[in-house]
């Protein structure tokens, strides 16, 4: 496609309930939405999934905003015409900033596929019409409140529960959920909150029959994760550490991870995410689609990604109303029998609700060719 302009918006979208992880509590989702307008008059949409603070990763919204406006969007606008598969190469001279790159690549993908009349799911190679929906549950006031929150999601039909843990809120929280629901598929996410010195504590999670423990140690602890894996029966699943297909290959070679959480933003885009899924599929390593509290734009893209054959575990692809009372798309993802439908329309297959988009916009900028 030939890009005429790129619009960036910072949105503030209220969450239906506070979301607490080992990093802290969020009550508003601050996110960047990207619109890429082509010379043919087609608009493609993308989402930069950074958060307000650089706590999950070193990227954060206003850092992404700056690099997108100063370096990334101008590089794409300088191209005569660009195919989605060429975006990563056109942005390669900028080191890092993978979430920002992913959001721009997604907008170009959506624009190109809408132009062709082809769905993102079909382009990626999706083989399922719906995907099983797991839910990520934040840290609650106490274990009893956690059990009631989990019960609510189970009643809604979610097929897999993930609870956030942190030092001091790990064994008892997990024990309470497991005691209340002995048979549910359950996993925990530490978001980098421990060190290898906590191995004995983490081994106490083994008794709960968890599907996996997500990212117990820090992003660069590849060797320590391998050492920890030797001390746990619970499978380790890396999230933060898997920043690219290369990182995935290294972590698998070292035995640091036996399951991978694939997030397109974290790895620089959906095309790199597919490369990770492909390498895991070839190695017989299970993968699942993670989430970053996406709006309807990123959520539609995640549903398509999760519909690839490599995705053998339920992902954090929940219904829009798990986070938002109002979304920025006209048909937000809903839960049907524990599953979310994979959109089939051209591009991402969702239409933007312009009133909602405007209502949540706190800052916007248009860059022209
Ligand atoms: O670690 O998976 C994570 C949200 C923000 C940042 C990191 C994570 C998460 C989640 C929520 O767990 C996943 C979702 O979007 O449902
Ligand atoms: Mg995680």
From TrEMBL:
Keywords: Lyase, Magnesium, Metal-binding. It holds the Pfam family MR_MLE_C. The keyword Magnesium applies. The keyword Hydrolase does not apply. SMART domains: MR_MLE. One of its GO terms (molecular function) is O-succinylbenzoate synthase activity. This is o-succinylbenzoate synthase.
